[in-house]
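Anyone up for a design puzzle?
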């Protein structure tokens, strides 16, 4: 395939950015989107130009590093991560716009790379347990009801890519934060921090400057791991419970 790429280029956080147009040819439909960008960068390097900076790591849909807005959609036209998006999703002659995540809490570092350390600080605020676990326990030592285990596992699938924030018209991080809260709050090991966890993590989320949630649902639609929208409702219930109990003390 021959494609026209319109890529966001920005030298650093303080510089003004703009879309730059490039032509790439000989792109196989079996290439991943990142491999296509590798091809572009090889051509830029050979021409003596600065390659396009973009985040990537495992390239297996596990780490969440590959954060790109493609033709206006977080991770592109398929419900998957950018590294697992293949060029068969596009047609010969297409023009493709490639941009970084757009959110006040995710400042651009360079080109398509953004600083997502706000997510790290949200997790540090309460995404842990203090119950001593020691070595690997015997199976079924701590009984967990099957619905609770399924609920926890479903939310633990969040890879922290930030697609929910990029897709949200308000730049909210509610889906990410709710996933990190819910997967611990329903487990016995997470019970000691149940109330402080939700208060601390939601407080940190607000402090980071993410937008407010209006339940448009774009976050759940864009999530490559299928974190459900009701996760936000579950977190809101936990937050109300925690604030009421804190008010009684």
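Challenge accepted. My sequence:
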């Amino acid at each position: 395939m021959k494609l026209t790429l319109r890529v966001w280029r920005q030298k650093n956080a303080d510089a003004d950015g703009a879309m730059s147009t490039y032509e790439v040819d000989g792109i196989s439909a079996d290439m991943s989107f990142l491999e296509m960008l590798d091809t572009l960068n090889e051509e830029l390097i050979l021409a003596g130009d600065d390659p396009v900076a973009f985040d990537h790591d495992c390239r297996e849909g596990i780490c969440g590093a590959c954060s790109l807005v493609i033709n206006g959609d977080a991770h592109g036209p398929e419900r998957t991560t950018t590294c697992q998006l293949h060029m068969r999703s596009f047609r010969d002659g297409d023009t493709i716009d490639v941009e970084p995540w757009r959110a006040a809490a995710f400042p651009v570092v360079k080109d398509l790379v953004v600083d997502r350390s706000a997510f790290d600080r949200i997790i540090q605020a309460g995404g842990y347990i203090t119950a001593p676990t020691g070595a690997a326990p015997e199976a079924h030592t701590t009984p967990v009801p099957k619905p609770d285990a399924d609920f926890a596992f479903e939310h633990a699938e969040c890879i922290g890519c930030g697609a929910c924030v990029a897709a949200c018209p308000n730049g909210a991080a509610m889906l990410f934060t709710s996933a990190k809260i819910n997967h611990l709050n329903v487990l016995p090991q997470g019970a000691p921090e149940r109330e402080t966890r939700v208060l601390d993590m939601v407080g940190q989320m607000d402090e980071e400057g993410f937008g407010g949630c209006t339940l448009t649902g774009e976050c759940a639609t864009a999530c490559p791991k299928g974190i459900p929208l009701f996760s936000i409702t579950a977190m809101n219930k936990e937050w109300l419970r925690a604030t009421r109990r804190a008010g009684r003390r």
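A detail worth pointing out: The CA atoms of residues 178 and 235 lie 5 Å apart.
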